[in-house]
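Could you help me review a protein record that somebody else here produced? What it holds is a sequence and that sequence's fold in token form. I need someone to confirm that the token line plausibly describes how this chain folds. Take the sequence as given and treat only the tokens as open to question. This is what I was given:
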Amino acid sequence: MIVFETSAHPQARPGEGDVGGRRIAGRLLPYGVEAEGSTPLFDPLARRFARQRPETSVAVGPADAEAWRAAAARLPAGPLLVGPCSLGSVEEVRGAYRAAAEGALRAGRALFLLDPQPAGIPDAPADARVVALCSFARAGRDPFPALAASRAAGLACGVLFPLVPGWTADPSTVDSLLAAAAAAGASAATPLLPDADGESRRAIVEARTAASPDATDEFFDAIHHQEWLPRMVERLPEVWRRCAAHGLSVLPPRPIGPGEPSGNAAASAHLEERAELDPLPEHRAALLRAAVRWIDESGRDLAAVAREGNFRRVFPFDGDVAAEAEAALRVATGAR
């Protein structure tokens, strides 16, 4: 039995993270970390499936947008992740997810919505872009349960799915997932390398069994007794090419907060894509991500600064990183 326990205080977690290759600066948790229910969704932040619990309590935040606004305003600068949403009709009654999203938008934050339910999708200001991240739940029919409603609400959408050998990493399954994502209106599909510790491996087997009861003993043995993660790393470039063949970007769209300079968001998005997708040395990728953090925290219209010729005076990195960041700002605004 699932028990919902209401709290007057929003659950807000500061801390930089990575979701599908995009930076987040914190997380708002209207219903705790894991969505409850019989369908095991893949958590793209933890990169593991939620394990099923027949009895659990779920902490529900307040249905008060102003409380969430105050909580969001205290988090570090940069996009925030809201979610996951409660499954079924709980959000229609509780309203915590929509309140969290609306409060964060009032605070001027750029938002990723993790697996929103229809009742939880906020009305975004015209100058904002809210991005729905739709998690993988099963192969076959409706692999991304939150996608259809998110697109119907006009959100930019990306799907995220794990590469699991003998299941989602099979070429035919990858093509099926990508085709389903494109047909439902997603603009991006991001393959993720799942965590491979013992707990995560158990959750993978549970998720496959719940989604595909025909899972075999060979699948159990392969997941638990083989070192399959290096093979999945090698598969990534091929899957990226398949994404392009379906007209899908590999990284999700980057959100834009109300009042946020669009050039800043576009430049950060470009640098993230370089760091995530190009075969760069680790230290180079880390510098590009540090530049993204600085742009997120700057609070200035950096495209205007670049047009004035003053970007190198304010940007704390030099050399190739400065050139890359300035070029990204110029491309984002059509300047030369």
User: Anything to note?
Assistant: The chain is about 40% helix and 15% strand. The chain has two domains: 2-245, 262-333. The radius of gyration is 20 Å. The CA atoms of residues 161 and 191 lie 5 Å apart.
